[in-house]
Amino acid sequence: MNDLANLPPLDRLRAIMARLRDPVTGCPWDVEQDFATIAPYTIEEAYEVADAIERRAWDELKGELGDLLFQSVFHARMAEEAGLFDLDDVAAAIADKMIARHPHVFGDERNAKSAEQQVQDWEAVKAAERAAKARGGVLDDVALGLPALMRAEKLQKRAARVGFDWPDIAQVIDKIAEEAQELAEIRDGADADRIEDEMGDLLFVMANLARHLKVDPEAALRRANAKFTRRFAFIEARLAEAGKRPEDSDLAEMDALWNAAKAAGL
């Protein structure tokens, strides 16, 4: 490894990746991977970055960003091996895109627009880019690999741009009540596939409500998950003080402790 020690950090990382992927002297696991097998790790690392930020764990964030950067290097190395592109091409592409999407910073436009107007301009540029790619349908390039809740919101945003949207938030709330009622009516008698279908409809409309309320549904659900974790930890701690575990308790006792956690601001 001494031959790598004096390289600039990014060059060093690229050299490490190339060595890991060497078909003769590299790591067998790394050599066997392809884009499809690495993609889940890329998604996982992105979530770990988000988790560190959510927890304000700034001491961990550097490492998590490094893990995510390594994923880009890994994909770029596989692409280079296949003769598709390399890491320099990746960096050049994103640099060109950022310059093109920020004419108010890098071009002749005045930098006097509101953040809202800049978002509208950003969407217009992205729409032009999609047209240049000859994508046919409005929803065609909403990535399939996104988390389902995030993808639902993006699908709805895209449809709303062409006028397919409820004009009033009250109609969204009415639709939630309708979908919830449909689910309640079939929950006992329908097969699992029908129940899953109705549950999906309800979740999809909930994502639409979040969009109308200008709430990020992924962030809202992460916040709810964190809240549930804190309150359940409180339940476990109080039970432990009494020499008990959750499985030794019952719903009434745990619900009372939940309310105590809530009252304590957890």
TrEMBL record:
Keyword entries, A-Z: Hydrolase
Keyword Hydrolase belongs to the record: yes
Domain NTP pyrophosphohydrolase MazG-like: 33-106, 172-231
A GO molecular-function descriptor: ATP diphosphatase activity
InterPro entries (UniProt xref): MazG-like_dom, NTP-PPase_MazG-like_C, NTP-PPase_MazG-like_N, NTP_PyrPHydrolase_MazG
Catalytic function, reaction form: ATP + H2O = AMP + diphosphate + H(+)
Hydrolase is among the record's keywords: yes
Family per similarity comment: Belongs to the nucleoside triphosphate pyrophosphohydrolase family.
Protein name as annotated: Nucleoside triphosphate pyrophosphohydrolase
Organism name: Roseicyclus persicicus
Lineage of the species this protein comes from: Bacteria, Pseudomonadati, Pseudomonadota, Alphaproteobacteria, Rhodobacterales
